[in-house]
Design goal:
The complex is a heterodimer. Chain A is 30% helix and 29% strand. Chain A contains eight helices and 15 strands. In chain A, strands 11-10-9-12-8-1-6-7-13 form a nine-stranded mixed β-sheet, sandwiched between helices. In chain A, helix 2 (66-75) packs across helix 5 and helix 3 packs across helix 4 (125-132). Chain B is α/β, with parallel strands linked by helices. In chain B, the strands form four sheets. Chain B has a seven-stranded parallel β-sheet with strand order 7-11-6-1-4-5-12, with helices on both faces. In chain B, strands 15-14-16-17-18 form a five-stranded parallel β-sheet. Chain B has a three-stranded antiparallel β-sheet with strand order 8-9-10, covered by helices on one side. In chain B, a hairpin with a 2-residue loop joins strand 2 and strand 3. Chain B is globular and about 60 Å long. In chain B, 57% of the residues are buried. Classes of the chains: A alpha/beta, B alpha/beta. At the A-B interface, helix 3, helix 4, strand 9, strand 11 and helix 7 of A face helix 4, strand 7, strand 9, strand 10 and strand 13 of B. Strand 15 of chain A pairs parallel with strand 18 of chain B. Chain A: One of its GO terms (cellular component) is cytosol. Chain A: Belongs to the ETF beta-subunit/FixA family.
Chain lengths: 275, 336
């Protein structure tokens, strides 16, 4: 079994965002593997341990992204591929096309990715990869089982061969979905508890090669035309609107509560006594 | 230029979701004064008397035509089942924009639709602005630590999802109170092969109010100290008609389910009222809720960063304040 994990390197969640000259300052920022991608990576490693799978981590981005791949190697992935790209990193179709063309010849049984990246937050690249590769997907998985209908103890299934039985989070409710492999599945928080790299793992990873791929070799003319037709452009970037300094309510708990209630009534969030 | 705009409508149970009415209003804004119509796509399960009812309602909110896709695989959340019929409809209508809610359903459907059409996609728009030469869409980055404005430079159709709770809702039109049945089309059943099946849906949200669409959220952090504490928050939320949320610290500590988590990991919410109980205010949490209209913070620690963004703060014990407020609200309820 072959599993591809899609990774993105993002700012650490505790980083503040500084905007200078119309762009986000990256200098001195701590980078991590996107937290949702960590769940995907952990799930791939667990499947590898249980089923003897081969795991390939792929990212598209600038040179610094290789640090994320190095971490993935330290955690136990078998192969790491960096698609070197410094342009149009926020153009989801562009990145999806690069990833899809990198994945296509690998013919994986399963592609795992995070539900969304905590920076751009669109949650679009992985699903666009699925569409470009014509694969079914299930998103926001909190539990994943693979196997034949027999192995999954299903009485019947509309497909033969390997299946994925996915419990997914749908706005707080959960849904059980069945789909045939190959498929793409995105990971939601709660899928697993990601491990930390071990020291021997880190040492071994230093010696492993990271395979590089280049956009010019991956994108044919029709794809380039599609990338142009699907382009969007950033025209401005701003900090969030500042909030005015608030007010602390004074007095005993009872007095504070009464005042709070009065505030809620003034805001029309709670019925007033008069009405 | 009479290209229509297509809204991907969504129901929850038998009622149309509010974000759909927001999407219709955004569509009307995008049409400006030019000629053109707002069409709606609505997918649902089975025979669909409820679907017909929802379609009639969409007409009264200004949709000129409603296109229904129904199949046995189609559930409220099965985006894959909607993809093919939506694709065919888009190819037939050639809309300028396709607008969906940035919901579980919309955020799965929109990127796949965009990829299949090689269309541009702008996700999770919080504001739409008309420019002299086009349109600008504002959307959050880093869960709201920054905002960017984007425009489409490629060819139509352009795909947009809008963040719930951030846009005006369309108003019903009195003139079309008697809905024109001929404006409701049923799309031909898709002949495409089955791609996934939903075997079971387990409802776990007790109040039935989705966090991202809730007007009022009562959220708890590490200071809530356990699942019993969260029951106090639930009681307050019930009185207020709101939903319960949580910080990562509370989820990590096992006080509540991860599906309640608000923050840069987790959900981003923009309710009218956010009551933060025992939440210190880590940067990653603030990113997920600092765009709420009114923020009330209850925390023992006067130095907690949450107070720096709260409109009203109470330095005190949530185990006293929350039950007191719940009781006051109950008293009010009895008077009304």
């Amino acid at each position: 079994m072959k599993i591809v994990v899609l990774l993105k390197q993002t700012f650490d969640t505790e980083e503040k965002i500084d905007i200078a000259d119309g762009r986000i300052e990256e200098y001195g920022v701590k980078f991590v593997i996107n937290p949702y991608d960590e769940f995907a990576l952990e799930e791939a490693l667990r499947l590898k341990e249980a089923n003897d799978a081969e795991v390939i981590a792929i990212t598209a981005g600038p040179e610094r992204s290789s640090i994320a791949l190095r971490t993935a190697l330290a955690l136990g992935v078998d192969q790491a591929i960096l698609v070197s790209e410094t342009e149009q990193l926020d153009h989801s179709y562009h990145i999806a096309a690069l990833l899809a063309e990198t994945i296509r010849p690998l013919k994986p049984d399963l592609i795992l990715a995070g539900l969304f990246a905590i920076d751009s937050g669109s949650g679009s690249v992985a699903l666009q990869v699925a569409e470009l590769l014509d694969l079914p997907h299930a998103s926001a998985a909190v539990k994943l089982q693979l196997g034949t209908a027999d192995e999954l103890a299903l009485e019947q299934a509309p497909w033969n061969g390997q299946l994925a039985l996915v419990e997914r989070d749908v706005e707080g409710d959960s849904e059980i979905v069945l789909l045939p492999l190959p498929a793409l599945i995105t990971a939601q928080q709660g899928l697993n508890e990601p491990r930390y790299p071990s020291l021997p793992g880190i040492m071994k990873a230093k010696k492993k090669a990271i395979i590089e791929r280049f956009p010019a070799d991956l994108l044919n003319e029709p794809l380039q035309a599609s990338i142009a037709s699907s382009a969007t452009v950033r025209t401005a970037i701003t900090p969030p609107p500042a909030r005015q300094t608030g007010r602390l309510l004074q007095g005993s708990s009872e007095q504070q509560t009464k005042e709070l209630l009065h505030i809620l009534q003034q805001l029309n969030l709670v019925e007033s006594e008069e009405s | 230029m009479s290209q229509p705009i297509l809204v991907v409508a969504e129901c929850k149970g038998s009622s149309i979701r509010r974000v759909t009415f927001e999407a219709i209003a955004v569509a009307q804004k995008l049409l400006q004064q030019r000629a053109g119509a707002v069409h709606c796509f609505l997918a649902g399960p089975g025979e669909g008397a409820e679907l017909q009812q929802a379609a009639r309602e969409l007409l009264t909110y200004g949709a000129s035509e409603v296109h229904l896709a129904s199949s046995s695989e189609q559930t409220e959340s099965n985006a894959l089942a909607s993809l093919k019929p939506l694709q065919s409809l888009v190819q037939q209508l050639q809309p300028q924009f396709v607008i969906a809610g940035h919901t579980a359903y919309g955020r799965e459907l929109a990127p796949r639709l965009a990829a299949s059409l090689a269309s541009g996609y702008i996700a999770d728009a919080t504001a739409v602005e008309l420019l002299d030469d086009g349109f600008a869409f504002t959307r959050p980055l880093y869960a709201g630590k920054a905002f960017e404005t984007r425009s489409f430079t490629g060819a139509a159709p352009h795909i947009v999802t809008i963040r719930p709770n951030n846009h005006e809702t369309a108003a019903p039109l009195e003139a079309v109170a008697a809905a024109n049945e001929s404006a409701i089309n049923t799309l031909p059943a898709s002949a495409s092969p089955l791609r996934s099946i939903v075997r079971e849906v387990v409802s776990r949200v007790s109040s039935g109010i989705d966090l991202t669409e809730a007007d009022i959220i009562v959220a708890g952090g590490r200071g809530v100290r356990g699942s019993e504490g969260f029951q106090l928050l639930q009681q307050l939320a019930d009185q207020l008609g709101g939903a319960v949320g949580a910080s990562r610290a509370a989820c990590d500590a096992g006080y509540c389910d991860y599906s309640l988590q608000i923050g840069q990991t987790g959900k981003v919410v923009t309710p009218q009222l956010y009551i933060a109980c025992g939440i210190s205010g880590a940067i990653q949490h603030l990113a997920g809720m600092s765009q709420s209209r009114t923020i009330i913070a209850i925390n023992k620690d006067p130095e907690a960063p949450i107070f720096s963004i709260a409109d009203y703060g109470i330095v005190g014990d949530l185990f006293e304040i929350v039950p007191l407020l719940t009781d006051e609200l109950k008293k009010l309820g009895r008077q009304a």
